[in-house]
Amino acid sequence: MEGVMDKFVSIHLNRTSDIPLYIQIYNGMVQLIESGVITCGQQLPPIRRMASFFDVNTVTIVNAYKKLQADGYAKSKIGSGTYVSFIGKKTHLGEFDVPIENMISSDSAAESVYVKKDGFIKFDFAGASISPKYFPVKDFKEVINEVLDRDGGYALEYQESSGYQPLRESIRDFMKAQHNLDIPLEEIQIVSGAQQGIDIVAKAFLNYKDVVYVEAPTYPGAVNAFKSRNARIVEINMQEDGVDLDDLKKNIMSNPPRLFYTMPVFQNPTGYSYSIEKKKELIALSKEYDFYIIEDDHISDLYYDEKPSALKALDDSDKVFYIKSFSKLFLPGLRIAFLWVPRRHFDKIALAKYSSDISTSGLSQRILDLFLRKSLWAEHVSHLQKIFYKKWQETVKSLEKYMPSDVSYFYPKGGHFFWINLPQGIYSTNLYYEALKNGVSIMPGELFFIEQRPSEGFRLSIAQISEWDIEEGIALLAESIQSLIDNPHKVFQGPNDRPLL
Amino acid sequence: MEGVMDKFVSIHLNRTSDIPLYIQIYNGMVQLIESGVITCGQQLPPIRRMASFFDVNTVTIVNAYKKLQADGYAKSKIGSGTYVSFIGKKTHLGEFDVPIENMISSDSAAESVYVKKDGFIKFDFAGASISPKYFPVKDFKEVINEVLDRDGGYALEYQESSGYQPLRESIRDFMKAQHNLDIPLEEIQIVSGAQQGIDIVAKAFLNYKDVVYVEAPTYPGAVNAFKSRNARIVEINMQEDGVDLDDLKKNIMSNPPRLFYTMPVFQNPTGYSYSIEKKKELIALSKEYDFYIIEDDHISDLYYDEKPSALKALDDSDKVFYIKSFSKLFLPGLRIAFLWVPRRHFDKIALAKYSSDISTSGLSQRILDLFLRKSLWAEHVSHLQKIFYKKWQETVKSLEKYMPSDVSYFYPKGGHFFWINLPQGIYSTNLYYEALKNGVSIMPGELFFIEQRPSEGFRLSIAQISEWDIEEGIALLAESIQSLIDNPHKVFQGPNDRPLL
User: Fold this and answer.
1) Which of A374, A453, B133, B322 is packed most tightly, with the most Cβ within 10 A?
2) Residues of A with Cβ-Cβ distance to B225 under 8 angstroms
């Protein structure tokens, strides 16, 4: 609960005011709830704890909580406490820019910190970032102290814009040893997370009204970076073995792209991976029609079958910008990824990086460097592979056991996303609300399409949930699906028929 | 010397190769020098140390160093060692994009780490970031361990995009207590350093071909962010009491701006500050002609006279985006600043931040938060004020004592930059090379103008130099200036007459 209380330090009580203390606390909490700092489904701290935190009588807190309930901000659950029941700014589903906020919230620590097992959201299949319980905090502390003892104040200085040289070297060595990729040192640009990598390539290469192709569905953060460059965005259908080549070629004829954004391995949100044939074809097309490719390798380390290979490995004409995130599996708070930049484009990218934030935190870079050098990264990944493979097996088993027969799904060969398709006409945004009633959260498919069009598909993520909660969560989810199928009046008809919040 | 050796880990010896080891080491070092990883003026490590590092005979290192000297990459100084004498990529002065690299190198730790007091550059008046020797590493270590003990894995999770809530609160409280500014919590956006703040405002508000005004001279990093948005940039002359209003108004008539970028307090590079009248006039103009202002508060905490006040304090119509850096005085490696965003623009800025890098390192944010809460920041700033005021006095005294009479300069009321003007027709780029011969480095003025036009002005920074080195450094600099005045054939005539490197 330590972290929970952090949220409330913004509430300052004025003990000389005429406004009753319980109203002051109520007002502060309403602000936190409406702004989405505290999100729907979060359990509020126990009465006693809040009373001691604010140094007030327990009755004051009871009254504040009662008023929250009376005004529709919270619900009480017998025997287990009070929960936020108001969907604030961050969990509102609406026009395109807003669900991005939604993603932030779900992809961030915020939810996972507060959602307790006995809380409103008991089964979190929405969160995309791995639960902090898997982070090797002890190793991390040792490494950070070692860095500070070794480098002193220099660990806290500005870093070269292209990155801390020893980290670039340890990344080169790591990529050779773990992924059999030979990356020349001078082609490695350190960036502050994969999102910045995408943003920087967009900055360096997109001109006004340039066309960018993305997979459909795709990661909305990337779409946002392209939109911020005033790009025109075109969706190309995604299939289980990679992008739909017919759709791609048809579009190229009429509207050739400057850039193609892809996640060829365990795609977000589908978990699909490209076949070797499709990779080759994509590279061939990039040469023939002269466009660049951003390859976003968000989680290829987390494989359960054979080790996946990068699209970039096939790139023989400097078309691919490869981005590897170190945040997805490990320590997202460090904000580190790297860009493998074709040499001839390096200066352009370096300038775009410099104008974006000068350099990535030198301290974070030194920490990751030492992690790689001590082989702690490889150790950690192999540990996670075991944990996630078990979760994957549990998910597969539960899907087979509980899902209605006309629901279809795909088993990814790695990562933590499953893409599930409901029967035709049953939209997943409706399922989102229906499942929430059972304490189950998922990511509705519309978030992953640029026009937010209603989708039968949804993303089921096993990043946050424990192995032993999967079966129960999927059983409940299947119940919600069945209930939607059985009650056609609940069926979401389209964008004009969205349930109001 | 610990950090120095880091540079050489990229040199991998192949002991079974036909290429002699000393040539392999030589080749590796040439690459490091040419790419600017090791920069001109840096002392190379002692022979014995290199020999033990590479596990080779000392003769091997002697031969490698000799070859470096023979080929013009290094110079030996009797009694004090071997120094790099080749100006690599990062210290090359050329077209606009390149000097930015130069700034990176000078503003970064890279130089300061390696330039020893007995080295080639003995008097560093170029570096803009405060020497790491002033960083409170012990306090930092305590704070970081406290954060990790308190928050565990959650300290390493994704953060809310707008920033870690407790940090936003401690910034609000700090700005109230230290700067008497009332900043509503919901108008604070945490960013990864001031450069990102500038870039994000540009991203949110600049459209294709929009006009941006900058002060002349100005900070080139900002210019770069605007260029990356395809903005048209117009320079407005800077005067000792702020921007030249006549020049500003004249330009507004013909070519009104969308955005005006200013550093109203202790400007970089001049040290000039706006008078209250000019601040009021600028605000009035922003209302009348409907343009936005970015106020870059890079170092207002470091004042020697009265406490400066922010332009933003006068903003009564939501025109000013105020950016405060926490990197300039303290821990640049943390990469933290904040943006004070007029409420009505907050969502736009939040989205631009999200699409840039999702969120700023949660660990860095938690560290800065605890620093502010423990009042360590205020303590540190007051300590720095004392140190820098002494350096400032020493600089003023030395300028009076040594500068030729036709050199003019300005005494800033804070910060660490002095702007010095050479006699007409004596360009500071020439002085840069002349002074380097005396082991003195400065920042030539042309770097701070958008067209890189030759300038008689230059920036003298006391960020890196020790109090006791200032007098000698300025005496030597004055000698170089006198030598340029006395030898007109050395005088730089313009862009077509640049000295070749």
Assistant:
1) B322
2) 355-356
**Same-domain pairing of B123 and B248:** no
Position A221 in a domain: no
Q: Which residues of B181-202 are buried (b: 16+ CB within 10 A; e: fewer)?
A: bebeeebbbbbbbbbbbbbbbb
CB within 8 Å of B296: residues ≥ 6 apart: B194, B197, B198, B219, B222, B261, B262, B263, B323, B325
**Cross-chain Cβ contact B363/A334 below 8 Å:** yes
For residue A367, the distance in angstroms to the closest alpha carbon of chain B comes to 12
Shortest Cα distance from A169 to chain B (angstroms)?
7
Residue B353's domain is classified under what CATH number? 3.40.640.10
Q: With an 8 Å Cβ cutoff, is A193 touching chain B?
A: yes
CATH code at position B67: 1.10.10.10
Interface membership of B110 toward A (CB under 8 Å): yes
Same domain, A103 and A119: no
Contact A333 B156 (CB under 8 A): yes
CATH number of the domain that B395 lies in? 3.90.1150.10
Residue B333 lies in a domain: yes
Interface test with B, best of A298, A358, A376 (most B CBs within 10 A): A358
Tokens in use for B3? 């950090």
Interface of A with B in 442-501 (CB under 8 A): none
**What digits encode the pLDDT tens for the residues A257-314?**
999 999 999 999 999 999 999 999 999 999 999 999 999 999 999 999 999 999 999 9
Q: Within a domain: residue A396?
A: yes
In sign, the C-alpha dihedral spanning B431, B433, B437, B442 is positive
Give the integer Cα–Cα distance in Å for A43 and A33: 12
**Does A397 share its domain with A476?**
yes
Q: Least CA distance to B352: which residue of chain A?
A: A228
Do residue A54 and residue A114 come from a single domain?
no
Q: Which of B374, B400, B415 is the last residue of a domain?
A: B374
Q: Does A393 share its domain with A489?
A: yes
Contact across the interface for A10 and B354, Cβ inside 8 Å: no
For B191, which residue in chain A has the nearest alpha carbon?
A357
* Interface mutation vs chain B, best among A357, A359, A365, A373, most B CBs within 10 Å: A357
Q: Which domain holds residue A476?
A: 109-135+379-497
- Give per-residue pLDDT as tens, A312-333: 999 999 999 999 998 888 778 8
- Ranges assigned E (strand) in B263-376: 292-297, 320-325, 337-340
Q: Where are the alpha helices (DSSP H) in A228-339?
A: 245-254, 276-288
Question: Is there a single domain that holds both residue A407 and residue A487?
Answer: yes
Nearest neighbour of A363 by CB, restricted to B334, B350, B357: B334
Q: What is the pLDDT of residue B491?
A: 52
The DSSP 8-state label assigned to residue B397 in this structure reads H
Same domain, A32 and A130: no
For the stretch B136-194, pLDDT in tens is 888 999 999 999 998 888 888 888 889 999 999 999 999 999 999 999 999 999 999 99
Average pLDDT of span A436-440:
89
The tally of domains found in chain A comes to 2
Task: Give the ranges where A403-466 is alpha helix by DSSP (H).
Answer: 428-437
What one-character DSSP code corresponds to residue A45? P
Is position A459 within any domain? Answer: yes
Q: Identify whether residues B250 and B287 lie together within a single domain.
A: yes
Q: Where would I find the H helices in B108-206?
A: 109-114, 137-151, 165-179, 194-205
Q: Which residue of B has its CA nearest to A224?
A: B355
Say which of A104, A144, A351 has its CB closest to residue B160.
A104
Residues in A 164-183 with any Cβ partner in B closer than 8 A: 165-166, 169
Nearest CA in chain A to B152: A137
Of A107, A125, A157, the residue at which a domain comes to its end is A107
Query: How far is it, in rounded angstroms, from Cα A204 to Cα A226?
Result: 11
- HEC-encoded secondary structure of B25-41: HHHHHHHHHHCCCCCCC
